[in-house]
Amino acid sequence: MITILETAPLNTVQDPGRPGYRNLGVGSSGVMDPLALQIGNTLLGNEPDAACIELQTYPFVIRFETPTNFAVTGITAPLELDGEPVLSWSVATAQAGQVLRIGIPSAGARGYVCLGGGIQVPVVLGSRSTQLRGGFGGLDGRFLETGDTLETHPATTILSGYGAVSPSAVLGSASAGEKTITLRAIPGTDYLRFDEESRKRFWEEAWRITPQSNRVGYRLSGAPLSLQKRVELRSYGIIPGIVQVPPAGEPIVQLADANTAGGYPRIATVIEADLWRLAQARIGTRIRFQDVDHQTGIAAMQPIRAYLDDLRMMATLYRQSAQSRNGSRIGSKA
């Protein structure tokens, strides 16, 4: 079990999401950065759908009430366990009573506190993710608050001394220290409805992420895009990555908490392989879209799969070693 000692709004319990209910008007929710969650769960040997805490505001402080293995992924930030530094993207074991403090990140925007065995909140419609709009999932369908407790699996083996190389170092930088990031995108269904100048400018413009951005979508500011002629579209299904253009002409990139349907013209869709980069982009970051085709978008997932396969093999070996070492059991004497 853990207790929340300090938090701010926007921090929630999330897992990979709640697919299969969009036809009923229920969005998928889930983590904004699915790669960071996969890394944390892989390091700890969790099931792929194990739930974590997604951090959007800092500082965040928890106390471990039972021995717990943990990893903080997604960000590079000052981490302290009872005042001693802990590395991001690495596994550590906290003893009962120890306090973990997570400060403001120097790189990345969303952090993921992954715990051995995951967080035990009720499964609702096949997921533990918080659905804020519907007020269900996670912990009572709401943001975490100071004083909340979350059930976890007590650790039986001390895990430490290994971690992951951040995906930005292996797959290319997301937003660490950068003011502009490039996202690959496929022209959308309504691409040709936009005038030629707007289509050109969409790819060339450095769009800025505005403060009116959240888990529903990132609103971008720049020179407005124009249609060749006004059009009323029927509503269609929405998935994360779709770039819509409302009447004001400034794009919105739909994200984890997106509506299930919408009717604004679709100029493009960010490929799945780059959604984690967008999730880690901060307010004020500028975005350039790179025009790619479907084949390129599909092939872009291969380096991510290879990265995760290598990580899975390494983490398995380290966990097996920890379990076989003398003194690796919780509570044993060195």
From TrEMBL:
This protein's UniProt keywords: ATP-binding, Hydrolase, Nucleotide-binding
InterPro entries, A to Z: CT_A_B (IPR003778), Cyclophilin-like_dom_sf (IPR029000), PxpC (IPR052708)
Entries under SMART domains matching the protein: AHS2 (SM00797)
Coiled coil (UniProt feature): none
Example GO molecular function: hydrolase activity
Sequence intervals crossing the membrane: none
Protein's name according to its UniProt entry: Allophanate hydrolase subunit 2
The species this protein was found in: Gluconobacter morbifer G707
Lineage, highest ranks first: Bacteria, Pseudomonadati, Pseudomonadota, Alphaproteobacteria, Acetobacterales
